C-alpha cells in the first residue's frame, strides 16, 4: 500500500497538475469571486513554477554539493550506484537507453577508472506500479561491463522497488563483505538527502557522492529572471517529488 500511495502522490504534486487542477476548479465553480481567486492563483503559480531564477535558487539549496575528485583522499571498497538512469519506454530492447540521469553511470565509471572505488554495486529493480519484468540494475550492470568494468567487480541488487528497499537490500548484501565507511553512495544530487537518511536508518551510513545536478551558477540575465521556462517546471517537479517522498519516508519510519 505504501508503495502504491508513494507513486501516485508523486503524480498529484506535479506543478502542471496543480495549475490544471486550479483551472479546472475555476471552470467548475459557479461563484464569480471564487472563480477569480482560482484563476489568479493558477496564473501566479504558473509564473512561479516556470521562473528559472526561483527554481534554480531552491534547487541549489536542496541539492547536495558536488565533491571534487581531489577531495576523495582514499579508495572506497564499493561505489553504491542507485538506479534511476535508464529509460524503458523506448525500443528496440537490444540496448540500454540512458535518460537525463546519465551522470550516475558516467561518474561511477570515472570513479572506478580513477581507482576511487574498487567495485560497484548496482541497486534497483522495477519501480513500476505494474511489474513487467524489467530490472534496471541488470541493464546498468551490462552497460558498465561494455564500458570496461569487469563482471567480477560488479554486484547486482535487482529486487528493490524504491530507495528504502535498496538500502535494506544493499545493507544485507554488503554486511559480510565490507563496512559502511568503505562505501560511496552515488545518486542524483536532488535525491541524495533522502538516500543518505534512508541508508543511515537501515544501518548503512555511507559517504555521499552526488551527481546529476539540475542547479547552475546564479545568473541575473533577463531570460533567467523573467522568461517562463519549461525546464524550471521540470526542476520543481523533481523537488516536489523529493519533498513528498522525504515526508512519506519520515511518516513510514524509513528515515
Word description of this protein:
The protein has 255 residues and is of the alpha/beta class. The protein folds into 2 domains: 2-63 and 227-252, no CATH class; 69-211, HUPs (Rossmann fold), CATH 3.40.50.620. 50% of the residues lie in helices and 13% in strands. Helix 8 links the parallel strand 6 (183-188) and strand 7. The longest helix is centred in the last third of the chain and has 23 residues, at 230-252. The radius of gyration is 20 Å and the shape is elongated. The model has no long low-confidence stretch (mean pLDDT 93).
Structural class: alpha/beta
Work out the count of structural domains: 2
The arrangement of helices and strands along the chain is: HHHHEEEHEHEHEHEHH
Q: What best-fitting shape do the alpha-carbon axes yield?
A: elongated
CATH secondary-structure class of the largest domain: Alpha Beta
Q: By CATH's scheme, which homologous superfamily of the largest domain applies?
A: HUPs
N-to-C CA distance: 18 Å
- Biggest sheet, spatial arrangement of strands: 5-4-1-6-7
Tally of DSSP β-strands: 7
Described by strand count, sense and barrel closure, the largest sheet is: 5 strands, parallel
Low-confidence stretches: none
Averaged pLDDT, please?
93
Instruction: Give the helix tally.
Output: 10
- Please estimate the helix content: 40-55%
CATH level 3 topology of the largest domain:
Rossmann fold
Amino acid at each position: 500500500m505504501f508503495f502504491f500511495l508513494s507513486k501516485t502522490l508523486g503524480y498529484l504534486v506535479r506543478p502542471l497538475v496543480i495549475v490544471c487542477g486550479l483551472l479546472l476548479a475555476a471552470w467548475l465553480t459557479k461563484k464569480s469571486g471564487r472563480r477569480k481567486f482560482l484563476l489568479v492563483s493558477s496564473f501566479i503559480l504558473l509564473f512561479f513554477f516556470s521562473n528559472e531564477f526561483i527554481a534554480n535558487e531552491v534547487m541549489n539549496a536542496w541539492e547536495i554539493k558536488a565533491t571534487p575528485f581531489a577531495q576523495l583522499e582514499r579508495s572506497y571498497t564499493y561505489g553504491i550506484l542507485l538506479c534511476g538512469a535508464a529509460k524503458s519506454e523506448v525500443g528496440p530492447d537490444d540496448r540500454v537507453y540512458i535518460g537525463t540521469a546519465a551522470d550516475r553511470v558516467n561518474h561511477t565509471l570515472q570513479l572506478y577508472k580513477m581507482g576511487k572505488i574498487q567495485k560497484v554495486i548496482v541497486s534497483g529493480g522495477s519501480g513500476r506500479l505494474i511489474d513487467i519484468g524489467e530490472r534496471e540494475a541488470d541493464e546498468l550492470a551490462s552497460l558498465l561491463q561494455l564500458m570496461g568494468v569487469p563482471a567480477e567487480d560488479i554486484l547486482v541488487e535487482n529486487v528493490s522497488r524504491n530507495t528504502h528497499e535498496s538500502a535494506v537490500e544493499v545493507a544485507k548484501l554488503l554486511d559480510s563483505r565490507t563496512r559502511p565507511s568503505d562505501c560511496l553512495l552515488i545518486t542524483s544530487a536532488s535525491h541524495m538527502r533522502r538516500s543518505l537518511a534512508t541508508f543511515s536508518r537501515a544501518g548503512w551510513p555511507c559517504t555521499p557522492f552526488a551527481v546529476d545536478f539540475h542547479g547552475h551558477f546564479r545568473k541575473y540575465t533577463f531570460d533567467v529572471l523573467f522568461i517562463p521556462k519549461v525546464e524550471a517546471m521540470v526542476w520543481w517537479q523533481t523537488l516536489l517529488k523529493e519533498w513528498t517522498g522525504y515526508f512519506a519516508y519520515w511518516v513510514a519510519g524509513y528515515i
